[in-house]
Specification:
There is one protein chain. The chain is an all-alpha fold. It folds into 2 domains: 1-108, no CATH class; 109-200. It is built from 7 helices and 2 strands; from the N terminus they run ααααββααα. It has helices at residues 2-33, 37-42, 44-70, 74-93, 110-139, 145-186, 188-199; strands at residues 94-95, 106-107. The protein has a two-stranded antiparallel sheet. Helix 5 (110-139) runs antiparallel to helix 6 and helix 6 (145-186) crosses helix 7 (188-199). It is flat. Keywords: Membrane, Transmembrane, Transmembrane helix. The chain crosses the membrane at residues 6-25, 45-62, 77-96, 117-134, 146-164.
Length: 200
Amino acid sequence: MKKLILIGIVALVVFMILKALLVIVSKITEKAFKVSDKKRDRFEFPLSVAIQLLFILIWLMSSEGVANKFGLNNLEFYISFCMIGIFCVFWCYFSWDMEHIFVKPCISKKRNRMIKKISIYASIFIFVIIQGYFQTLHAMDPESEINMMFSVTNYSIVVAIIALDRIMNQIVAYIEERKKENVCICCPLASQNKIDQDKI
């Protein structure tokens, strides 16, 4: 447990240092090029993706560093990798202010949540398929075909189907959201009438 806490402390310290540098560079760039709020909002999501990938990389490097120095058992490695998944889920639902180093997270925009979930579930789907393939190769036994089938089912098919279902769910939700926005833009009067009727 102490090793996992050490991994978390190292990862967070390095991450906050890099975020501080990023905030400083961002403010200097905005002042130099006079970036408007509208343009800054366009880069908010790509920056969020880049920062999340950076955090995952830092976490993996911290885990490797602690493992090389103190050693990690299989359970500690498992928990460390699970923490990456937990952080990714938090990333889907929350966004962090890029103008300040220390700030409370706020709920991210609905469209951003959808895109984040699609990317996370797609990554899980691809990872599970690849992992299931290699796991099957290692578990393959010519004398026990049933073991190979169980391996394929346990490591790929069931989880992959769940992940694919979540991908489709978020894609459909995103398309429906876009349709609603287009209707509101094209027919503002109709949407206002609908709101008035709902109030009645």
